[in-house]
Amino acid sequence: MKKVFKDISKLSPSYIPQRIPHREVEFKKLVDLFKPVITGNEAYNHVFIIGEPGVGKTLLAKYFERYIRNNHNFLVIYTNYRVEKRPGNIVRAIVSYIIPSMPLRGYSIEEMFIAVMKEAVNKNLRVLLILDDADTLFRKEKEFIYLLSRVDEILGTQNILSIIFILHSEHMLLALDAWTAGALRKNLLRLKEYSYDELIDILRERVAEAFVEGVVLDETIQVCADISSTYNYNARYAIELLLKGGKLAEQFGSEIVKPEHIRLARDQVPPSFSTEDIKHLSQHEKLILYGLSRLLLSSSKAFVSTGELEEEYKEICKELGLQPISHTWFWNEIKNLSYFGFVSRRESGKGYRGRTTIVGLPSFSARFLEEILRKEVYKK
């Protein structure tokens, strides 16, 4: 097998490069917004980084995290709400940094949060919490947002908790009640989508870091950017196309990563999320998606009803010896999967008895999803 990669980790979603092309201006704005806190003139701040998928929101926040860690006396805690899923898990993550010996059972979320904030004050810590993919938190857990924003009132001391919220849409802020909204400092940092030329620059830098010199044609990079233009020049998607295209080149024994390898990779890379995102789904979200892929593969249907999907989900639970979740919880999981673009849902039309909700796969093939999830569902 011919080797095309020099350092494949440089294409990982978790990799933070030394430079962030075309986000330097936004980084300077982020530093400026936190300068009063860094210099001690203010106790805390709140910043909202807002933008569509693939515009560099997480990259910018983690680049800033590294800058703060290396240059200033802050405790920085990064969490992803899409992964953590519950406010309690966010608080436990904070506890693990500040009071690692604290037992995590027997306390309410509020009790744990108050205890850990008191300890942070006692230790004279300044804490920066980065809450990624926080849209669901704003939709469903407004009381928790209120708790995070009122440290000074709860403790009767200065608020030492700064927060960066990462959102897809600023409309989430409109859902807050007046009390919670009033406690948040609304510093909005909106990231626009990259242009074609900007994405080319980003891809060239990643190619230089990740691939053996000369194996990736410039035309290959252009195809990556061109395909990504369909999805608002999503940089994360384009980088994953490069990764998959490189793997296909090695698989075919090619010494060069060609445009056709990227075109072939397109069928195996979902545009709205990464394969890592699938692995971070809850067990029952994976089972529901797996059930949907099985139903669509075994028929010529474009959609299945939620009733059919729930029955298939229950059958998979039976195969695995698991207790199915309730109908209400099942419906909530469908809504979550739809919100993040894993499935589509709409009211039924002709061909269905009565009115029901039907579910489909908008971004990728059922075969692709079934192959990934079969390994996830049945792994030991």
Write the layout of secondary structure elements.
Blueprint: H1 24-38, E1 46-50, H2 57-71, E2 75-80, H3 81-84, H4 87-98, H5 109-122, E3 127-132, H6 135-140, H7 142-149, H8 151-155, E4 161-167, H9 171-174, H10 178-183, E5 187-190, H11 196-210, H12 218-229, H13 235-251, H14 259-266, H15 275-279, H16 283-297, E6 304-305, H17 306-320, H18 327-339, E7 344-347, E8 357-360, H19 366-378
Parallel strand pairs: 1-4, 1-5, 2-3, 3-4
Antiparallel strand pairs: 6-8, 7-8
Keywords:
alpha/beta; Rossmann fold; Arc Repressor Mutant, subunit A; 8 strands
Could you describe the 3D structure shown?
With 380 residues, the chain is of the alpha/beta class. The protein has three domains: 24-190, 3-Layer(aba) Sandwich (Rossmann fold), CATH 3.40.50; 194-266, Helicase, Ruva Protein, domain 3; 281-378, Arc Repressor Mutant, subunit A (Orthogonal Bundle). Helices cover 53% and strands 10% of the residues. It has 19 helices and eight strands. It has helices spanning 24-38, 57-71, 81-84, 87-98, 109-122, 135-140, 142-149, 151-155, 171-174, 178-183, 196-210, 218-229, 235-251, 259-266, 275-279, 283-297, 306-320, 327-339, 366-378, and strands at residues 46-50, 75-80, 127-132, 161-167, 187-190, 304-305, 344-347, 357-360. The protein has a five-stranded parallel sheet with strand order 2-3-4-1-5, sandwiched between helices. The protein has a three-stranded antiparallel sheet with strand order 6-8-7. Helix 16 (283-297) packs across helix 19 (366-378). The longest helix has 17 residues, at 235-251. The chain is globular. The two termini are 30 Å apart.
